[in-house]
Write a structure and sequence with these properties.
Elements lengths: L11 H12 L6 E6 L5 H13 L12 H7 L6 E4 L10 H11 L9 E5 L7 H12 L5 E7 L7 H6 L1 E5 L4 H10 L7 H7 L3 H9 L2 H16 L5 H8 L4 H20 L12 H9 L3 H19 L6 H10 L10
Parallel strand pairs: 1-4, 1-5, 2-3, 3-4
Bound molecules: zinc ion (ZN).
Zinc ion binds next to helix 3.
């Protein structure tokens, strides 16, 4: 998706607020867009950047001027974008310094310069402190747009320097309409229901062919149980999957297995379409280990979410070695 192409239907109120500020030339020099992942905050930030840089001086990008064209092909000389290149890394001080030295010079094409910092909460402490120094006395014609899924992880001093814009989940109807329009309603009602609050996350799942990923994980776990494969080889494959997606999937499966093991067949599952395999697992698992296993996933998920420097291969091997299901009933 072209990130700067449009405002999403559930962002209209936020955009109207921005338009008011743009039309009165009162856009703050530092904005912080925050809310859950999957709401299109980065897309919103790019649209705003393109509008502000546009040479037509209108409230929306004209899509026709030199600035809009260069923005479109990611070569705008007055636009700077910092983001995580890998979900397990952080934004380093060097990147912030490079932006700082660039914005010390005058804009080359547009009347201003824009810096977007996606995943702003993933800055290292030194990077955050370096940014804070810039935000304390920013050059006159630079606007900073910080984007964060985890507001609490940002330095309070950075938060207080920014005008905050909260992004909320869309109404069910609005989300469904958008998903249908973008041909994203196919993956099955279950997946859809899980993503209605964060529609863009469903897009990510579809892009990663989530149903195939699920199939692959089940096949790996079955091979592990039957000793046709081992934790080391499977972890090497799993490392290639998006970590949070992988851990969220395992989490929801184990939660369903716990429900089946302790409540019984009548329980409603989050992964209803996988009832057969989940029931089989619930019958062949070490029930006494299930809750501990869930905690292990939560802990690893927290570390991955904090972008901590973890040895993913090793962590996944440990997780796989502790998989509480066997090929036959043990408990
Ligand atoms: Zn333009």
């Amino acid at each position: 998706m072209d990130k700067s192409s449009s405002i999403l239907p559930w962002q209209k109120a936020s955009w109207e607020a921005i338009e008011k500020l743009l039309s009165t030339d009162k856009l703050p020099q530092a904005l912080l867009l925050y809310g859950m992942e999957g709401l299109g905050k980065s897309q919103f930030a790019h649209y705003l950047a393109k509008s502000k840089l546009c040479l037509q001086n209108s409230l929306a990008p004209c899509e026709d001027c030199r600035s809009c064209h260069l923005f479109q092909v990611s070569t705008h000389p007055d636009f700077f974008h910092l983001a995580l290149m890998d979900s397990n890394q952080s934004i380093k001080i060097q990147a912030v310094r490079e932006v700082n030295s660039a914005i010390c010079k005058k804009p080359q094409l547009s009347p201003c310069q824009i810096v977007i910092i996606d995943d702003a909460d993933a800055m290292t402490m030194s990077a955050a402190n370096s940014l804070l120094k810039i935000l304390e006395d920013p050059p006159g014609n630079v606007t900073f747009i910080l984007v964060s899924n985890q507001l609490y992880r940002l330095l309070p001093t950075i938060r207080s320097r920014c005008s905050k814009f909260s992004f909320q989940s869309p109404d069910r109807e609005i989300a469904l309409e958008w998903l249908e329009k973008n041909n994203l309603t196919k993956p099955g009602t279950e997946l859809l229901e899980q993503c209605l609050e964060t529609p863009l996350y469903l897009k990510t799942l579809v892009e990663h062919d989530y149903p195939s990923l699920q199939k692959g994980l089940v096949s790996d776990l079955t091979a592990l149980c039957h000793e046709r494969s081992n934790a080391i080889s499977i972890a090497a494959v799993w490392q290639q999957h998006p970590t949070m997606m992988l851990l969220d999937t395992l989490f929801s499966w184990v939660l369903d297995v716990i429900k089946l093991a302790f409540i019984g067949d009548s329980v409603l599952l989050k992964n209803e379409t996988m009832r057969e395999i989940l029931t089989e697992w619930s019958k062949n698992c070490r029930q006494d280990r299930l809750h501990d296993y869930l905690l292990k996933i939560i802990k690893l998920r927290a570390l991955a979410n904090e972008k901590a420097n973890i040895n993913l291969q090793l962590s996944l091997e440990v997780l796989l070695l502790g998989w509480p299901v066997s090929s036959q009933k043990r408990s």
